[in-house]
Amino acid sequence: MNAQNLVAFIVIITVRCDEDLSIRIGLPEYICDKDGGVRDVSREMTTIRLLGKDAQNVGYKFDVNFHTIGKKCQNNQRCTLLLWRSVRELDRYLKTYPTKKLQSGLVEVNNSMFVPGIKYILNVTLIGGTVVQERQLTLDYVDDSVRKNVTKPMASLFLLAPDTSYAYAAYVVSADVNICSNVSSFYFKWELVGENSTRFPSRSAELVVPPDTFRSSLVYTIKCDLIGVEDGATIANSLQTVTVLSKGVLLRLPVKRLATGTGRSVRVKAYVRDLDNSDEEMTISWSCFELTNNEECQVEGDNSELEVESGFKNPGTYKVSIEISKNDVTLTDSCIVEVNNNAPIVDIEEIEFPSNPSTGIEIHASVYELKTSCTLQWTSPAEDGYEALDLAEVPGNVDAIVNVTTKEDFFLHELEEFNNGTVDRRHNLIIPPPSGGTLGKICNNPVQCEIDSWEGLKGDAKYLFRLTITCPSSDEVLDEFNETGAVLTDSVTATSDVIIETNAPPSVQDLEVAPSDGDAFLTKFIFKTSKAEDKDGDGPILYKFGYILGNRDVILWNLGDVTNCEATLPYSEDGIQTFVEGCDNFNSCGRVLGPLIQTKLPEGVDLQAILQRFLTRMNAADYSRAFLEGFVILQSYKSQEENSTREVISHRVAEEIDKLLKLEDYTDDQKIIANDLMENVNDYNSHLELSESVINKVLELRNRLSDESERYTQRKLLWNRVKRASSLHDIRNYIEISELIITTTNDPHKISLEKEKLRKQLPTYMEKLCVSLKKAQFTLELKTVILSVEKLNKNSLNNLISVPFEGNSWQIFARIRLGNVVKDARLKCVGKAIFKDYLDKTGVIYFADILNTSDINEAAEIVIYLPKNKSTDGTPNCLVYRSEWRSDCKVVQNIANYVKCSCKYLGYYYLEYSQVTDPPAVTPTSRAAATVVPTGPERIVPNDSLAQYRDKTKGNYDTVSYVVIVASVIGIIVLTVTVRKIFHDDDDKEDSETFEFPKYAQLHDEEFLNDAHI
């Protein structure tokens, strides 16, 4: 067989329809025979792809003809008859191809039906009206003899992506490649071609174009080149054209009613988004109208957030409206602001549109200036136009009434913080995602049964959620309530309404995978599903085909409007659980589980050949795929040769890092590659268990990159790239590298150095986070540090702020009141963190600082409430760190579970305990002697701690309370309440001398301070 022994397959596509259809028919240019290709994978089938959003909505008619190539069958009647028979079999096969299979978008032809030396001509007719287009594709069936006689690499490169997209959605292009030559390593080069040519940094077979990169009403062409790593030569290339559709501007005011007090700051946040990402200017204006007196009120704002710092002076009902204009389109929306004299302030954070019920719904609400005896509750009223929802049926007790009260402990009302002052708290509504049901299992736990049976919110629905707050109408009413304990009758009720609009994910159809079993890493499995059902305007659908391995989702292909793919699978003794997801352009996703596929480890195949999959990806700097290959190989071969496999992977990763470390200066692409490598080390190290030497190299690389203050990136397809600060993604990556070093290295000195570096770098990272922060708060939880960056506003600046945030995984947080540290809170954030065993302290260190400001008021008093360590005895002292630990904070109060400290500046805070005891007690002989107070007592430090002394003491005692009071012309202030044990002398019978101290109600075990004070 010579170089002419190949199959040429010509496909003539004739599209007949009444209007233009989005249909493409894809066919590889080259098909390798069974023994060919560098992947050592058997390709027994050739696939014809029916692509485009209309591909599954029409009928197909196939006709096959042929021509011989060269001198094939010349003057040989028998040979000619055999060729005719082969062509007729293929023609009959395609004409009778099942309609159901056509609807999957995949036509499969066994390679045994092709004969080398024939040029097949395939006519494909789409049923319809006039001819719209004709196109030809060729297919060459390549065997060993052909490869030996051809020097140029033979490869098929076909791009899989939808023909249309939207500017606000991510656009995914996947390259399907088949190489029939001995090319050991290759990568992909992606670029936008045309007037504003731009190269993408990705070297992977998958390109993800981020949202807001394209602009609407334009057509873009993406070029992909397949590049050989060894010589940099182009092996193959392909083009993908995409038309960006228009959706205009989106405006929503989710908060329809907002409660506040007179003269209090008001914030109203609208959700505004230019879905077209166009250049035209957008104008935003706010207006106000007082409905009670039918008068206009003055407000000013030119962005999506309106802040009226001085609030509204008079009680009443105010209608606040927003108007946006762009491209001759004007949109408006409005909300009602209810202003009452004694109402608390409600602040609702921005709510994105639409909401995705499959991931759960969260409404973040902050309530300021609450009084003791106030109550808060979320409800979902049954009103016309909204879905009915009983919050009592939602897991998590979300409809509970929260009481802000100090309970019956009236004595503590003497304290300043528990008087008729105000408190603040977050009261979020969290609707969990659907649980998926109990799946027929018997459930004996009522709480778990409730969670398992939760179906979640409906899709494409509108819900009304109401926050109701009831408080005493005046301080006099509160005083009367506190004195009598009667039911609160004279109260003020304020309500805030929030509208949630959900988006239903696509209804994904069943997934078929064939064959049902095969060899791991060798057998090609075909994944097929039917087109997902979704409403108009939500397409194109992005299909994610994958499987679950080691409790981790592994995505094989991300394909836009393509409902099939082929891939190899790893080995698992329990089988491989397959799945398919369908996501619309708002990234709402539905998932369907496919069949459980049984694979076996291939026999007679060296593990080193399997590892070549990992090495090939590493050579191409396609790190996401390379680390994924390493993960699945280790999972498949974990019962054998695991250590040697890990060594190969660690060694190759180390080589790649060394290559990057040798660079003197980093180009923009090299920085992207290095960050990508570090990210994958973070992501997969728990599975790969890279050696400590590799982790140290990662640390060195991180240090090199973190010293770079800025790096290049792409933005809006500009010819010249612009500089920007590190992204949220990069910053998170750097912090997680520190965490990896701290938690994996065995060198205490290196751990200490990395902790100190992270501590010093953290404020800089937080500054960058504040600049790029879109939502009100960013949080990150790690093993040794938990941090948060939160936008400031006038209300939060003057009230207590959680450090770092409530509900963190350590279940530890402090509170801080910043007061007049800064005058203007706009465009500023507070950085907050807790560290575990940092600096020279054991336990938790708290951090707080104002970001993006230089106008700190050094004379301001900062009040911080540090939680006590219940397992530690002694007297608490507040320390603050500024180059060293200082006693610049004084303890103001030591109450309940917190210590209140007053500090001069922001920084790191620590609660330290000194082990001291009171002087020996003097037993008085009379009441008169008992009134003598010793002056200048000598403190004695015992050999035993106070707790040890108490445990060793077996004598009888009574418990009494001492009250320390300072009286002046201003009034009486209670400084502290101390509980002491008075031990009895067994020989003392003088009962008449027993002192009678007043008794007070015992404190509740629960931390009522969270409700009434903090």
Measured between the Cα atoms of the first and last residue, the distance is: 86 Å
Query: How big a fraction of the residues is strand?
Result: 35-45%
Mean residue pLDDT = 77
Number of strands: 59
Helix content class: 10-25%
Our count of domains comes out at 6
Uncertain residue segments: 1-6, 10-19, 34-42, 129-133, 406-420, 437-444, 709-725, 922-955, 967-972, 982-1014
Q: Indicate the CATH class of the largest domain.
A: Mainly Beta
* Secondary structure tally, helices: 16
Shape: globular
CATH topology name of the largest domain? Immunoglobulin-like
Radius of gyration: 36 Å
Largest sheet: 9 strands, mixed
Task: Report strand order across the widest sheet.
Answer: 23-22-25-26-19-35-34-30-31
Secondary structural class: alpha+beta
CATH 4th-level superfamily of the largest domain? Immunoglobulins
Question: What would your notes on this structure say?
Answer:
This protein is of the alpha+beta class and 1014 residues long. The protein has 6 domains: 8-243, Immunoglobulin-like (Sandwich); 249-437 and 452-501, Immunoglobulin-like (Sandwich), CATH 2.60.40.10; 505-603, Immunoglobulins (Immunoglobulin-like); 606-724; 770-914, Chondroitinase Ac, Chain A, domain 3; 939-1012, no CATH class. 19% of the residues lie in helices and 37% in strands. The chain has 16 helices and 59 strands. The strands form 16 sheets. The chain has a 9-stranded mixed β-sheet with strand order 23-22-25-26-19-35-34-30-31. A hairpin with a 2-residue loop joins strand 39 and strand 40. Helix 8 runs antiparallel to helix 9. The chain is globular. The N and C termini lie far apart (86 Å). Residues 276-547 form the PKD/REJ-like domain. This is PKD/REJ-like domain-containing protein. The chain crosses the membrane at residues 960-979. Keywords: Membrane, Transmembrane, Transmembrane helix.
